[in-house]
Each structure stands twice: as C-alpha cells, then as structure tokens.
Amino acid sequence: MSRFISNKTTAGACTVALSALLCTPALAGDARSIALGGSVIANGHGVHGAVENPASLMAMKRRQESFHFRIGFAMELRDTGDAIDVLTDDENEDLIDDIETEIDLLSQSQVQCDPIFGDGNDTCVSGTQAVADLSGRLLDILDTVDDETIDGQATLDMGVAFTSKAWPMAVNLRLSGTASGTPSIADGDRGYISEFQQLLGDDILTLDEARNSQFLEANALGATLEVQQPEDVLRSEAQGAGLARAQLGISFARSFIVGKHVIDAGITPKISSLVAYDVAIRVEDEFLDETESIQDRLDDSEVSESSFTFDAGASMLLPDLPIRVAAVLRNAISESVKTENNYEFETTPQLIVGALYQRGMLSVSGDLALNESKVDNFETQKMSLGVEFGTRKFAIRGGLSSDQSRDEDATSVSLGFGLGPLQVGARLTGTESLEAGAQLAYSF
Fold this sequence. Notes:
Blueprint: H1 2-10, H2 13-16, H3 31-35, H4 46-52, H5 56-62, E1 67-79, H6 83-87, H7 95-107, E2 123-126, H8 129-145, E3 150-162, E4 169-184, H9 187-199, E5 204-206, H10 207-212, E6 216-217, E7 226-227, E8 237-258, E9 261-282, H11 283-286, H12 294-300, E10 303-317, E11 323-330, E12 335-338, E13 344-347, E14 350-359, E15 362-369, E16 373-375, E17 378-380, E18 382-390, E19 394-403, E20 411-419, E21 422-429, E22 433-443
Antiparallel strand pairs: 1-3, 1-22, 2-5, 3-4, 4-8, 6-7, 8-9, 9-10, 10-11, 11-14, 12-13, 14-15, 15-18, 16-17, 18-19, 19-20, 20-21, 21-22
Helix pairs in contact: 7-8, 8-9
C-alpha cells in the first residue's frame, strides 16, 4: 500500500514539491508587476518591461535611461481541488504506513469463532477499530484527489537592456520548468478500503461479516485471519508529465511617425530548447520486481526539440491626454512538443491590450487579455488593474486581477513597494494562496 501512494504522488513530484508557495498567475513576472496585478504592457520598466512589451524600450529611452539589469524568480501552483492541502497535511504524513501496519496485524490475528458451527453474531476477531478509522481517513483522501490535476510552474529570468542607442534592445534568458500530475482512483480500490471501514468499524469482525466479505476470510477456529493484500487488489493509476524550457529572447524597438502620432513598436524573437517527459503509473505494475523504476520510464519518454516564436508590441501616447495605450501579441507562432507517449505541451498566441494614465507621481494602468491561451499548458486570460504612487526612489503600489481561465480563486489583490532598486510585491488569492516576490532591478 505504501508503494502505491508514494509512486502515485511521484508522478507529480515536481508539482507537489512546489506546495510551499501557492501562486496564481502563469509566468507572473517581477515584483513590480506582481504588486500592480500584472498590468504592465503600457507601464513597463526595465528588462521585465521589455519582456512584457518590447515597445516599452522606447519609453525607457525617452526617460534617458541607458542600462538595465534584472534577475528574478516566479512560481505558480494550480490545484483543481484540495489535493495539495490533503497531500501535504502533517496528519496524513504516516497514514499509509499506519494502515499497512494495521493490515499486517490483522493478518496475524487468530480466528476466535467457529466458521462451521458458530452463530453469525459470534466475534471472530476483535481490536479492529484502528484499521476502520484509518481506512475512513484514506477514503476521504482518495475522494479528494481522484482526477484532480495538480500543475506547477517555475521560472528564472536573467536579462539586460540597453536603451541609449538608436535601436534600443534587451536580451533575456528564461529557464522554466512545468510539471503536472493526475491520479485516477479505481472504484475497486475504494471498495477494498471501504470494506475495512464498514466491517471493522465496531472494533470487531463477526462471523456473518467474515462470511460476506470479499477480502477477509475466517477458515478455522484458531487459524490466522486471511486478508487479501493491497498489492493483489489495487488498480489505481496516475499520469505525470514535465517540461524543461530554456528560452532566449532578444527585443528590439523603434518609433514611427504616422500622421500626427508617434507610435513605438517592438519585436522579441524567442528561440527555445524544450525537453519533455511523461510517465503512466499503474499500481499493479509497481508491485512487480521486473517493472522499471519511474525514473527509468521518465528517461525513456524524453523528447528534445527546438522551437521558435515571437512577441510583437506597440504603444502610443494619446494626443492632449496623459494616457498611453498599448497592445501585445504574445507567442505569435504556436509551440508544442510531444513525449514518446504522446503527451503534449502547448503554448498558444494571446492578444493583450492595455492603457496607462500618468499624472505627476500617480499612475493607473490596466491590461486585458482578449483571448484565452496556454503557456506550456497553463491556461490564462487575465484582466488586471494597478495603481502606483511615488518616484523612482520610493513608490507604493496596489492592484487587482482576475484570471478568466480559472473556475476558482480567479480574483487576486496585490500590494507592494519600491525603494530605489529594491522591489517587493505580493498577491493574495482567496485565503490560502499567496504569491510574493522581491528583487533588485537596476536602471541607469
């Protein structure tokens, strides 16, 4: 039994390992954008501004900034149910080992009734309450995690930007990892565990209960109780997959005069190296000595590919108004990679529009994604609003965002501040999901 649970969760091991930090938006970005709810395509600063909208490079040039540097980390975990809470609950840490121990003890119990001539109400085995209680807890867990997908994604960005030249440019290296795990609990497994809960819940096993049981058998007075072992019954499965991406993006920007309007435009070609894995786990196979390890099966499924896509962005200051409007087309060319077992990771295009109102030390910005897209299978369609008050030396920030691709915990509240090069931001979703970031981002 312990091998069943440990192998099942290993399929999403990269995902579960992220449970210390629960976040909401896919590839969230830097601490400043976190604090602004993600509303940055018309309000981008530094290297991250160029990543979000390459046209932002021209606004940095107008501010007479010449060099920018940034290193940042972002993480996200998505749970379609309460699987993470259940799997990481300290009370459940030793549950499977405890059940296995109690089943072994039950298998060593001597039959106290006469299976041939005894009365149906006679007690065959006593002291069974512990097995029943543990089985009830396990049933609750199985009902919670069954078919509930857990997805995790983490990114590390390192980049520089040069904005004093005629053609401002930025270079950004992104390393990212994505993992997904989905357990599927067989009905027969529930029946096996449920029988222990129901038959043994009054601290005894009667002769009638033993006669009617599929998995417990009292053969003779004084003999040991025969208990069908978990490895002979359990048939649950799990599917896990992972993707590692190394992406190099180089952004360029330029301004154009169209009639009376000055339009900033930029493009970011992005080249990626992708490595994808997946593994299917069947519990019955995990108890066979000849079954390959999960790591070996992951290695066998490995597929490496290269891909190319690009982002294109534009922005423009409205005449006679302190408002800048912007638009970005992200991942204009779809990307996908399939493992040897045909598990597919996809990244699809998304069009985002945004605006920035600037008045002295106050700025209000908003972004709206016009379609739902995938980023290495993470679905996202965000609407965000952010407010910033202050200067480059000190600023306070707040934001609201909503991800229309999510059925639950879609709305987030953000807060943060900037103190010179130090940027701090946090986003709260519901009562248990928190995203936080801190970084040093330099612009000279």
